[in-house]
Amino acid sequence: MQYRTIANLNLYDSPDLNRLATQAAVGRYLKILSDEPLRVMTCEDDYPGYLDPQDLKYLEKAEEPYQAAVWTEEGIRDRLPEVIAFTQAAMSVPNEYLWGGTVAPNYDCSGLMQAAFASVGIRLPRDAYQQEAFLQPVKVLIPGDLVFFGTPEKATHVGLYLGDNFYIHSSGKEMGRNGIGIDQLSADGDRVSRDYFALYRGAGRAIESYISST
Question: Residue 165: which region, alpha, beta or left (left: phi > 0; alpha: psi -120 to 50)?
Fold first, then answer.
C-alpha cells in the first residue's frame, strides 16, 4: 500500500531519529517497509528512511499508486530554463545548507538538484553519487547539466551548470559557504571556487526521468 504526505516530513537515517536523511514534501508517495521501527521508502526515488511515528497522522492512503512520468531527452531540454530558474529563486530567499534537505528554503546539494527538476515533473535519484550514475556523462556542458565533485572513488557534491563556466549549488560551512550560491568551475575563481574545482569529477546530462524499481 502507498501513502501520500499531507505535510512536509523529515526522514531519518536511523531509528533514533537523530540525523536527517531526506525530506518528503507535501504530495510525495511513501511505502511503509516496517512498523517497528517505522521505516519507509519514498516511491519516486526508492529512497529509504525512518519516520517519526508521530508523523503517521500526516499520511493518507493514496487513491492510486505512484506512476512515473516518461520524458524524452528533448522534453527535458525544453524544461531546463525552468529548472535553472527554480534554483535561482531558491537562492534569492534566506537559506542555509541542510544535510538531507529537499524542501525549501534549506537544501543540501543533491536535494536542491532533485527539487529543481521535480518542480517541472522530472525525477532524479536522491544522492549526488546516484545522480551521477543515472545521468549521461558529457564533456561539453550546456546550461542545465549537473557538475559533480568528490573523491576519485565517489561523487559527494553536485551543482547545476549555468553557462559561462558558472554553476549554482547548495554548499556547507566547511567549504566556506552556508547555503545556495554561484561559483566558478575554474581554478581561477575565488577560494570556494578553487577548492571545489580541485574536487571536480565531471558532468552529466538528464536525458530521462528516474523510474522507480518498486
Answer: left
